[in-house]
Amino acid sequence: MDLAARPWVESYAPGVPRSFDVPDGTLSDLLDSSVRTYGAATALEFFGACTTYRALGDAVARGAAGLRSLGVTAGDRVALVLPNCPQHIIAFYAVLRLGAIVVEHNPLYTDRELRHQFEDHGAKVAIVWDRVAPRVQRLPGDIPVTAIVTVDLIRAMPASRRLALRLPVRRARDARAALTTTEKPAGPRAVLPWRDLLRHRPLPHRHPRPAPQDTAVLQYTSGTTGAPKGAVLTHRNLLANAAQGRAWVPGLEAGRETVYAVLPMFHAYGLTLCLTFAMSIGARLVLFPRFDVGLVLDAARKSPPTFLPAVPPIYDRLAAGAAERGADLRSIRFAISGAMNLPQSTVQTWEAATGGYLIEGYGLTETSPVAAGNPIGPTRRPGTVGVPFPGTDVRIVDPEDTTRDRGPGEAGELLIRGPQVFGGYWRKPDETHAALLDEGWFRTGDIVRMDEDCFISIVDRIKELIITGGFNVAPSEVEDALRTHPDVTDAAVVGLPRAGGGEDVAAVVVLAPGASLDAEALRSFCRTALAAYKVPRIIVQAEDLPRSLIGKVLRREVRTQLLDDGPRAEGKGDNR
């Protein structure tokens, strides 16, 4: 197979371009274009409160002027610690308008997690959810944050909802407490409310703008293979990935789509599909501070969604909730799943409920994030993550010798090259050198196979491979086998160090209601599908598995918990 010829374009859906040119400009230009084109149309909707593109553009210009008054200049980092809300969109583009760099943070981070990242990026200004402000104030004095801008989510809601949240009843008090706080973030750092930031005159159009090659975002990796690192994403990277996404869905109608932001925008997946892609097509972006089936279905009655990026558990819960309530999801023509394996059962249930397509894509923070996807059409191939995006090159190589390419059907490490590939890790030259090879090839750390038609199937992460008895064990293979047992609803498999060297295969399983753990029966079941060395030697039951906010199982946390708990005699077995 001649990968240089990009043979995968033959599997593209009709209307998807076979070649791709990166648009000129920056993310600031992207928003300016949408403001000019769709000015009177709704850009943002939050609990029913709507903001037009013209009003969004004005708020961004005022926010940029407010940040400039705080001393923010080109190249400075500005930390955003926000859930999905209109202020998040405004802050993101206001920072970029100055040529400064957005650093996204999960607002549920612990003090320790926040400290690590603030020490790393050195932001002087932080725009934060008011419930998080006390945590930012508690950061050590040697961290250079001098100003904290606090965001009250309730102020972005319609007046009727704000009044309802002030009712002297427990339900209203609880809802209000989940959205805002009365705690004052006392400390040495200056604090000002978000509304004060927007009281400035709009930043003049003549103010210097960023360049395409400038850094736009520092997006921290999840840390599943080590300490989180800041991936440096340029304006060109993110602009290219938004354009690749538009090209991948030829049925999109600019100015007429409604995109639901149920994914957190501080995650690379939510950032690109909502903050940039949706804005680039003049979509109505309906924002949810957290995923809630009831909130989504209620919003769908007023503003029916047409495009939904999410993860498999969200599709399962929405389909079940809609069936229970008799809600209509048939407005959703396009749904894209990422971050984890998409079960065929989820696809079937979702497509029966909506009549639209649900396809699986693939990407990483370092690829802005989307690098491949299943075609939106009859050529899709469930069970794979599809084919490379327009303008994207891939290679499958020997992970021990990246100069040696693997053939069709052979497992190897996936390398990616394209305009969406990041520029390296923030202030980590050694890690950057290890990840980026000559000629712009990025080592994903994922083991994949590519078939004759260039569809890619994920085998596993290199760093999560288990070495037992001199053999490599892919955790996902063992997990898949366990999940086919009728008593097992979910499973996570990791390697635990063995006293004599090597590792034991250990599994944590979530059982179906009413089932009880029979470790030996599970091992016997696994032996029918797996070689003996792959069968879990340790099997432990859990009520649930640790997951990221987008629902991905965190194997590293599973492993840490097992090591902290020590060996469980009832779960041990001999696979010889």
From TrEMBL:
Record's keyword terms, sorted: Ligase
Single GO molecular function: ligase activity
UniProt-listed PROSITE patterns: AMP_BINDING
Annotated AMP-dependent synthetase/ligase domain residues: 33-426
Gene3D superfamilies named in the record: 3.30.300.30, N-terminal domain of ligase-like
Signal sequence residues: none
InterPro entries associated with the record: AMP-bd_C, AMP-bd_C_sf, AMP-binding_CS, AMP-dep_synth/lig_dom, ANL_N_sf, ATP-dep_AMP-bd_enzyme
Pfam family, one: AMP-binding
Span of domain AMP-binding enzyme C-terminal: 477-552
PANTHER family according to UniProt: AMP-DEPENDENT SYNTHETASE AND LIGASE, LONG-CHAIN-FATTY-ACID--COA LIGASE
Name this protein carries in UniProt: Long-chain-fatty-acid--CoA ligase
